[in-house]
Amino acid sequence: MYHKINFFKFKKLVPIALIFLVANQVNAEGLTMSHPVFSQVNETITGVVQDQEGKPIEGAKITVVETGETATSDAAGNFSISANIGQTLSVSYDGYTEQMVKISGTSVSVSLTSKKETTSIEEVTLVGYGSQKKSDLTGAVSQLKTENFKEGMNISVDNLMQGKIAGVRIVQSSGEPGAGVNVSIRGIGSIRSGSTPLFVVDGVPLSNDAVSATGPNIGLGNAQAKNPLNFLNTSDIESITVLKDASAAAIYGARGSNGVVLVTTKRGKRGEPVFTYDTYLGFSSVIKKLDLLTADEYRAAGIDKSYDHGGNTDWQDEIYRNAVSSNHSVSFSKSTETGNYFASIAHMDQDGIVLNSNFRRTTARLNAEESFFDNKRLKIKLNLTASDIKETGIPNGANAGSDGQVIIHALMANPTRSVYDENGMYTNFNMNAHYNPLYLLSVYNDKTNTFRVLGNTEATLRILPGLNYKFNLGIDKTMSERNTTMYPNITDRTPKGAYTQANLESLNVLLEHYLTYDFNVNKHGFNLLAGFSYQKFKFSGTYFGVRNFVGQGTGVPPEINPGYSGEAFIPGAGYAQENELQSYFGRVNYNFDKKYLLTASLRADGSTRFGVNNKYGYFPSVAVGWTISNENFLKDSNIINELKLRGSWGQTGNQEVPNKITQASYSLSQGSGYYLYDNLNLINGVTVNRTANPDLKWEVVEQTNIGADFSLWKNKLYGSLEYYNKTTKDPILNIPSGALSPTSTIWKNVDAQIVNKGFEFSLGSEIIKNENFTWNLDVNGATVNNVVKDLPVSEIYSGEVSGPGLSGVTANIYRNGYEAGSFFMLNYLGIDANGKYIYEDVDGDGKIGPKDRKIFEGAIPNFTFGINSYMKYKKFDFAFSFIGQTGGYLVNNTALDLNINNLASDRNVLKNFYESGASFTNQPQLSTLYLEKSDFIRLNNVRLGYTFDINQLKFLRSINLYVSAQNLFTITSYSGYDPLVDTNKQVGGNQSLGIDYTTYPSAKTFILGATVKF
Question: What range does the record give for the signal peptide (predicted)?
């Protein structure tokens, strides 16, 4: 049975903690009395252990030589120990030379020297609810740090990961500033529950639900919600850690099936306080233009003479612009003996490359940590960020059909038309479903304002040496308002005008308690974790609309005073939903002699989203590792510095389904009514809208991973290799129901499987490393083979295609034995002597129809890769990154709208269609004519900087000036704007894959920037 845990029950932990505190103090006193006394009173000696580069060392052992008293350094390298002035400390850590330090005061600083070159495998890496040395990891975990984030115009976290982690694919749903981004890890694992990983920011798991309001359809399609991750200032991010396999992600249970991304923000570091000012100025333009007929080419095409309007206009030049962007970020960081502090404030102003689109964001952050009581027994952390985002959008709804997209209007516009008529007014095309794109932009106004606050406080109490109790309370609050106006106009899309306002509020509250215990018994090392988590999600919204108001520039605009303007056509309405997640989790990490490793975890999740018969799901994992390089036969090898083999198995879950779908739903309607009385008045009857299913449960992802980590020739070659097999079981579908069911469909777990398997590699090298010149090169790549198995229905369709005469046509199919979201269409064979398109007659009946469609390869690339290089010569730094993919396909729905038939209807066409010799009378049909490879390689980022050391000014440390470019060039055969795109064209909630429909193009950007440190 499902129960909520009362927070106040944890008050019972207080007397237990006090008993431990007293017992620990008595024990410490007993130890002190059993050793020789060098002075009358022991001192509390505090200190920090660092490596030769000043980085903290966690896990170093500190021993008082004279008494045997011991301590261990924490993640910040800090330690405290009871000793006397004049005694000696022995400080040791594997891989480093032991250091003997004479105590001359109550504070000491120890710098350890590596016995060999530091390797990546020795770094400390975040994992769920803690951290581990990379040498102790048994799961597939990848981490990026600040130095991996090359300067660029990156709005959100997902942009920072692009091309840097094997198996992680970042695809834009749109190039519009602040638009949503699709992130997938190791393929596509669900048909309708999404493939977005779980994002955890400073210990708070975020909801994958939209946090900004969507724009209702007022004739131009629904405007999609913005990227929920764009509220973070990327300059504040310290590291991004991706948990890819089940062993690493299973500790997050029901939400870990698509992988987990841990985001940590910056904290104050030891040393002098640092004041930093970051700024840049960016200049953006469209990444490419589509090759359409020019005005002269259009006239020469032999079209109807009435279609020559005497003008000469490049409509792409008219709607696209050279956009200017700027960013200013100020931060302050400081560390003391007992804590650290980081504060920042930033403002980003980014104009979109399409007229009237922009993104404005102001953020503020405060991170603080302080220690209290003896030997820093109690530590309290605070993370708080607030952001205010203002966005202006354009009419480009993905579900607007062929006549609601401003970009498709610009591409189809006859190049012989002029923007303005002889009176200086916008030229009226006088056509149904086709308008002057500049005029359409002028009468449309879409503004979204989103305010979000994310904060958490974490308290850590050391009960006994190695035994810590942690408490984490987090709150994520968002308020969003979207005002969309279509002013009265001369088109056939809401000609009398329409205004809508949509409001959304969301609240995510987290409460966690957990214990960790680290201890060693001879050569046996243990790290134990046990905890409880409760999270509640609540979101609500209101919306209304008015129409038939006065023209633009006259009277009061409806967004200022909607009650004064027009008449209501959407009465005030609203909605509210909430769901809760209650979890118990535990993990054991064990190592023997730093050679043999074992990790096991179990999480039990209870969710209100699922049926009463399956409230709880259980997600286990187990992993083993063998550090071969610590064996005697390799310990002194000059070639193999680090070598570890590991294997894991585990299960995670996916709960991303609509709320309440396990429960029946009813409504009153006249269609189900009856006549109860003799007066013949119709009484509304009850209609069943949804059939209950109390047995509904999580989708389960079972994953096996085999990996190897290595470092050779003193870091000349390092990296990791992975093989994974990831299978989704019990997928949730809304499928046809059985006989006698009150509804035609039912939400149900089916016995189907979606299998993703492949290889990943991450290779790096310190090619050159000396006093003046450093050159690091990293390469990563991943393969994926995706297939659907055991689907209980013959097929599932998705991927709605837009275009004249294409209503109800879909491009994606889910069928057994094929890749998820494969393409289903006619097979185009060429053009006959009369210019008619030839298609394969699959069924041989002499006619071309729906039965002649075939299944073709899908959108998922079978290989993705990234190349990242960093060079530093004296005070110059130079970095570049390439990204690419092969083996995937895209449906170019934009080209489908720009088909040859446009020349018969006063519209423009792609030049290659005209030059193919096709007849103007060919009607558009979805076929492989519009199916293109999405293979590409792109210079994603390049940066050149120079650092000035300011020795003359004591208050100024350094100035780094740099120039940077993004999306500098792309090598591809894809004829659309960008091969790395995916428009959301889902049908019935089932994922669409690989459709490019007049997507807001990506931008090519040049940046001038500076980083000043005081």
Answer: 1-28
Residue 879 has pLDDT above 90, yes or no: yes
CA distances from 359 to 51, 227, 325, 479 (A): 42, 12, 9, 17
Q: What is the pLDDT of residue 401?
A: 56
Compute the distance between CA of residue 614 and CA of residue 608 in angstroms, rounded to an integer: 10
Q: Which helix (H) or strand (E) holds 897?
A: helix 893-897
Question: 683: part of which helix (H) or strand (E)?
Answer: strand 682-690
Q: For 187, which DSSP code?
A: S
8 Å CB contact between 995 and 984: no
Query: Which residues pair with residue 685 across a beta bridge?
Result: 669
Q: Please, which residues bridge with residue 719 across strands? A: 710, 763
- CA atoms within 13 A of residue 152's CA, in its CB half-sphere: 28
Q: How far apart are CA 781 and CA 1009, in angstroms?
A: 31
* Residues whose CB falls within 8 Å of the CB of residue 74, separated by 6 or more in sequence, listed in order: 58
* Three-state SS letters, 276-297: EEEEEEEEEEECCCCCECCHHH
- Please give the single-letter amino acid code of residue 698: W
Q: Is 929 helix (H, G, I), strand (E, B) or coil?
A: helix
Segments making up each domain of the chain, as ranges: 43-114, 124-585+609-661+696-1013
3-state secondary structure of 630: helix
pLDDT tens figures, 244-261: 998 899 999 888 889 999
Percent of the chain scoring above 90 in pLDDT: 56
Tell me how far apart the alpha carbons of residues 924 and 917 are, in angstroms, rounded to a whole number: 15
DSSP state of 21: H
| CATH no. of 43-114 | 2.60.40.1120
The Cα 538–Cα 561 span in angstroms is 29
Question: What is the average per-residue pLDDT within 455-465?
Answer: 94
Residues 6+ apart with CB under 8 A from 301: 293, 903, 914
For Cα atoms 747, 221, 407, give the angle at the middle one, nearest 5 degrees. Answer: 130
CA distance 915 to 293: 10
Host H or E run for residue 604: strand 596-607
Provide DSSP, 691-740. Answer: ---TT---EEEEEEEEEEEEEETTTTEEEEEEEEEEEEES-EEEEE--TT
Question: Which of the following CATH numbers is that of domain 124-585+609-661+696-1013: 1.10.10.10, 3.40.50.300, 2.40.170.20, 3.40.50.1220?
Answer: 2.40.170.20
Give the tokens for residue 478.
Answer: 């968002």
Q: Which residues contact 487 (CB under 8 A, 6 or more apart)?
A: 443, 444, 445, 497, 551, 552
Work out the burial of residue 618: count CB atoms within 10 Å of its CB; fewer than 13 is exposed, 13-18 middle, 19 or more buried. Answer: middle
Written as six digits, the tokens of 189 are 């694992």
Residue 504 main-chain phi, psi, to 5 deg: -140, 135
pLDDT classification of 403: cutoffs 50, 70, 90: low
